[in-house]
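Running this now, will post back.
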Amino acid sequence: MSDIAVVTDSTSDIGTELAKQLDITVIPLSIIYRGVVYKDGVDLTPSEFYPMLEEAGDGELPTSSQPSPQEFLDIYKPLIDSGKEILSFHISKGLSGTVDAAKIAASQLAPDRIHVVDTQSISFGIAGQAIEAARLAKEGFSAQEILQKVSEIKDQSEVLFSLDTLYYLERGGRIGKVSSVVGSLLKIKPIVRVEDGIYVPLAKVRSMKQAISGMVEFLQGKFKKNKVSIAVGHGQGLEYAQSLLELALEKLNVKDRPSLFEVGPVIGVHTGPGTVGIYARPARS
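Update: finished.
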């Protein structure tokens, strides 16, 4: 058994089964709607959330909330008490204060044994780093070796997505540099890249079909014929996700069985229904 524990948060969209399989602890963020607090992935699933989001009026959209330092302490302390060193991977600081809450908890408990990582990413971009860390831990690598290897993977990975509407991103205040495409009179579908932890527009197209093609073309240009691992996610947009997955398998040199996942409520509250995206990284050798 490894003496390293891996922690992530629910915005990683890692899924209960995969997290359990890899022994990754997931701390949930929260959704607040009409005065009720729901724990992401615990009290509220994507299938329950997206209808709620669509039914909400303009003035009553759900909001998201990060875990408190105390909630992180409640996760970290049993792991530290059992002799573990902790690697904790979280949503980009540019999009959430989760990393700061984790760092406060780490500094109060065991700053030399808890390593909090700003993944500078979202969704499976976070999961990809946590998954690799968990696998390396099982292979016997040290914490510092794992952090170095995961950092290299982060630098070579891509997270791209497209939105059916920019409404939720704008209302949620997480729009980053994508604000440059807001207000267009045209019905556009932006292709968005997660870059340095914020959302950056990569291209503007007229249809989701063009967005799907554009995402795959970008990844082709980056990875060439090199082997990659991919994950495709969606927020109430399964048909789009299946099209994206099929095209990616056709055009990219995909080594491993790809993951198909649902984007959870905390990311979904900002991206809205009809979102589809892809995570790609060099495959493990």
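The mean pLDDT is 92. More later if anyone needs it.
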